[in-house]
């Protein structure tokens, strides 16, 4: 599975956990590469500190983008946060439009207001500029104040009724954004969270946690970064919202319990492992890397191979091949030699896997298996497509695999995916056993 590259466009504070110092580790923990574009450098963030230094980097945005263009550098997603001027908004919009390759997914946190008031740095015309950026997004994550300023309705204090939130969703549809997450929403005193809507499907949802007393800097950046990381890992929107809120609230609780100075931000670092595992449990496909991943593949292989090959090769040969090729130790050795494995997951359970290796411009798909009860759910197709995309991203223009000549179901599946028989092979695998296969392939 190709590792995604997410571009985070935020300011950076040398001390104080917010903006880029939050986005980079959280998005990285989600398994994505986090590229950064700092819009300003501060000695500390501005909440609770005085005398901080500030260096505006607006004039660097365009040349950085031009250098990326010269490198044909691709971004899978762009995530924007605090932008301090109309000029920065326009530069970011131009950057998004000019990035090489397919258009990236765009996530916008329109940071400019809270609790019914604009931040002092912004004038009354700033929301119109921020709205123009939001209209380019695939997902926005405003609070109700920011949404009210962008859409021109009067802000109301919560708690809110479900009917009121539904009316806000209706108002926000004019932005043309496919998905929206509204933060800082409460339906009852003492409970706080976020609501979301996918305008493409009409689905809505909410996730609430008990409110922790006090005000904590950087929590919006933690939520936004965690949401983007989960979404780009393939986690569904509702699950991504709950994962992001759990990381945010857990960070606040650790800080509140330790009674540390809130000016320096909250302790999100100790929650990153749990965040990564939450994504692992919810994402439909993940890269096999940890020891438990290899053990999971071994368990799946034991179940799948005995069922799939029992009328094709002798039982003794199945056991031999499992030990030689699909034990956790054997898979670990394959990984050390350039193979990659991706694991498919459904309803909290691992249900299939694919293994592959790049050889020049040719992708060899070594293994692709799905548990019997999940074989008509499109999982095999999704896994094979993942391998194709990984190969293409690495420079491959075609692929091949081997399939037992008597495995008619597998052959039919590969043919449905556009593969054709290229040749035949008979391979001595030791202990008097042979693999008698067709070699099938296609361009990618």
Please tell me about this protein's structure.
With 444 residues, this protein is of the alpha/beta class. It has helices at residues 20-29, 58-70, 86-98, 126-134, 144-151, 162-172, 219-232, 237-258, 272-282, 291-308, 315-325, 328-336, 379-393, 408-416; strands at residues 5-15, 33-44, 54-56, 77-80, 105-108, 113-114, 117-118, 139-140, 179-188, 191-198, 203-210, 285-287, 340-346, 349-359, 362-370, 398-404, 420-430, 433-443. The chain folds into two domains: 5-283, 3-Layer(aba) Sandwich (UDP-N-acetylmuramoyl-L-alanine:D-glutamate ligase); 286-443, Aminopeptidase. The chain is elongated, with a radius of gyration of 25 Å. A nine-stranded mixed sheet has the order 3-2-1-4-5-8-9-10-11, sandwiched between helices. Helix 1 runs parallel beside helix 7 (219-232), helix 7 packs antiparallel against helix 8 (237-258) and helix 8 packs antiparallel against helix 9 (272-282).
Structural class, by secondary structure, is alpha/beta
Number of domains: 2
| CATH C-level label of the largest domain | Alpha Beta
**Beta-strand content:** 25-35%
**Shape estimate:** elongated
CATH superfamily of the largest domain: Ribokinase
The CATH topology of the largest domain is what? UDP-N-acetylmuramoyl-L-alanine:D-glutamate ligase
Low-confidence stretches: none
């Amino acid at each position: 599975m190709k590792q995604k590259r997410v571009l985070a466009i935020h300011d950076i504070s040398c001390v104080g956990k917010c903006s880029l110092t939050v986005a980079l580790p959280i998005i990285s923990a989600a398994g994505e590469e986090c590229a950064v574009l700092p819009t300003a450098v501060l000695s500390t963030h501005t909440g609770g500190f005085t005398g901080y230094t500030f260096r505006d980097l607006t004039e660097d945005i365009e040349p950085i983008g031009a250098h990326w263009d010269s490198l044909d550098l691709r971004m899978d997603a762009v995530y924007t946060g605090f932008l301090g001027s109309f000029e920065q908004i326009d530069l970011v919009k131009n950057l998004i439009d000019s990035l090489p390759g397919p258009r990236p997914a765009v996530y916008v946190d329109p940071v400019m207001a809270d609790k019914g008031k604009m931040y002092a740095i912004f004038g009354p015309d700033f929301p119109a500029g921020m709205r123009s950026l939001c209209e380019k997004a695939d997902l926005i994550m405003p609070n109700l104040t920011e949404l009210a300023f962008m859409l021109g309705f009067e802000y109301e204090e919560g708690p809110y009724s479900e009917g009121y939130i539904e009316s806000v969703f209706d108002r926000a549809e004019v932005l043309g954004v496919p998905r929206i997450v509204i933060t800082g929403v409460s339906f009852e005193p003492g409970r706080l969270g976020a609501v979301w809507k996918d305008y493409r499907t009409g689905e809505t949802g909410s996730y609430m946690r008990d409110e922790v007393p006090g005000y904590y800097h950087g929590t919006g950046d933690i939520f936004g970064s965690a949401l983007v990381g989960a979404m780009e890992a393939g986690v569904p929107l509702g699950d991504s919202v709950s994962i992001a809120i759990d990381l945010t609230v857990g960070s606040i609780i650790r800080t509140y319990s330790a009674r540390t100075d809130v000016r320096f931000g909250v302790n999100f670092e100790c929650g990153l492992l749990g965040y990564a595992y939450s994504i692992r449990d919810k994402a439909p496909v993940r890269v096999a890397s940890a020891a438990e991943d290899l053990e999971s593949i071994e368990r799946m292989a034991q179940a799948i191979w005995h069922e799939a090959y029992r009328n094709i090769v002798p039982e003794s040969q199945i056991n031999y091949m499992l030990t030689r090729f699909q034990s956790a130790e054997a898979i670990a050795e394959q990984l050390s030699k350039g193979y990659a494995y991706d694991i498919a997951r459904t309803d909290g359970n691992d249900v299939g896997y694919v293994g592959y290796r790049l050889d020049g411009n040719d992708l060899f798909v070594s293994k692709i298996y799905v548990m019997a009860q999940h074989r008509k759910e499109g999982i095999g197709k999704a896994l094979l497509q993942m391998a194709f995309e990984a190969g293409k991203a690495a420079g491959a223009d075609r692929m091949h695999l081997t399939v037992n000549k008597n495995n008619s179901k597998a052959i039919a599946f590969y043919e449905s995916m556009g593969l054709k028989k290229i040749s035949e092979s008979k391979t001595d695998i030791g202990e008097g056993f042979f693999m008698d296969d067709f070699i099938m392939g296609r361009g990618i």
